[in-house]
Design a protein that fits this description.
Length: about 290
């Protein structure tokens, strides 16, 4: 039988799928949402405007009214202790409508503030209002941002080609949420790259639209599947980068992994574990069973 080789990235442990969430603005409902994430073993990323912490406002969206109050600076370390914190700009302007110098300030100042908080480099981001253009993307790169989430819902499960315009699968109020969740869970991943379900939103919407029960039921459905890797945005970024930086011998029979992360690949329907710093021979004898 003719077999032409195609190599596919798998997630840690050889898993075919990953699930992540990304929530914006640092409002006081994040704590309740983070407790739900912990209850269901789900990991995620919270995008904060460090220049607006401690502010209070009322948000009106159509018939929905909700308290738009943000955590105080001194509360952040406890609330976000077990999740990834990422940049959402200092004061939440529309970056696509600002000069590059102001974009650089909004991104760098927020990044620097958050780094003081977490004690390590912060390189993730979500665009305020989801807006960007080529110039904004260039400025992010120069500021040391490596990925940034948009608000363009793909309704798909592909990994991003370009992490600085990382399009999510859907918002939690998307009418296709349940259907997409069911499709994601039902399909076995074979002969294709690993799949990612990327959910985003704002926790104040759970309060304003009375959707706490809905989101808990959805998280419960997505939780504790052994073929799903639950990871933050940055964990996914770093893993995919490690996968994209594997070094191949000319005939492809040797794969070297120079990164600090172990990588798993599916080749000819076999899954290979390629440990950090090692070179693996690609033949059936070194494959692990699926
Ligand atoms: Zn926002």
């Amino acid at each position: 039988m003719l077999r032409l080789r195609r190599d596919y990235l798998r997630f840690p442990g050889g898993r075919g799928k990953a699930f992540t969430v990304s929530y914006d603005d640092g409002v006081i409902y994040d704590g309740r949402f983070i407790n739900l994430l912990k209850k269901y073993g789900i990991r995620g990323t919270f995008n904060l405007n460090s220049g607006l912490m401690g502010t209070k406002d009322l948000l009106v969206q159509g018939d929905m009214e909700v308290n738009h109050e943000k955590y105080k600076w001194e509360e952040l370390r406890d609330v976000y202790a077990d999740v990834e914190i990422a940049v959402h700009s200092l004061t939440h302007p529309d970056l696509a409508r600002m000069p590059a110098a102001s974009v650089a300030y909004e991104v760098s100042a927020d990044k620097a503030n958050l780094e003081t908080l977490v004690g390590e480099p912060v390189q993730g981001m979500a665009y305020p209002f989801g807006t960007y253009n080529d110039e904004v993307v260039q400025v992010l790169k120069q500021c040391g941002i490596v990925y940034s989430r948009t608000t363009k819902n793909t309704h798909e499960f592909g990994l991003p080609e370009e992490f600085l315009t990382w399009h999510p699968t859907c918002h939690h109020r998307d009418e296709r949420l349940e259907e997409l969740g069911d499709t994601f869970l039902a399909n076995e991943v074979i002969n294709r790259d690993a799949r990612l379900f990327y959910l985003w939103g704002h926790s104040y919407e759970f309060e304003g639209y009375e959707q706490w029960d809905m989101i808990e039921a959805f998280l419960k459905k997505m939780a504790f599947h052994k073929d799903i890797w639950y990871a933050t945005n940055m964990e996914i970024y770093e893993y995919v980068q490690a996968g994209r930086h594997l070094i191949y011998s000319s005939n492809g029979n040797l794969i070297k992994n120079p990164s600090r992360l172990d990588v798993w690949m599916e080749i000819d329907e076999q899954v290979y574990h390629i440990p950090s710093g090692e070179t693996v021979v690609i033949d059936a004898a070194t494959a692990m069973s699926l």
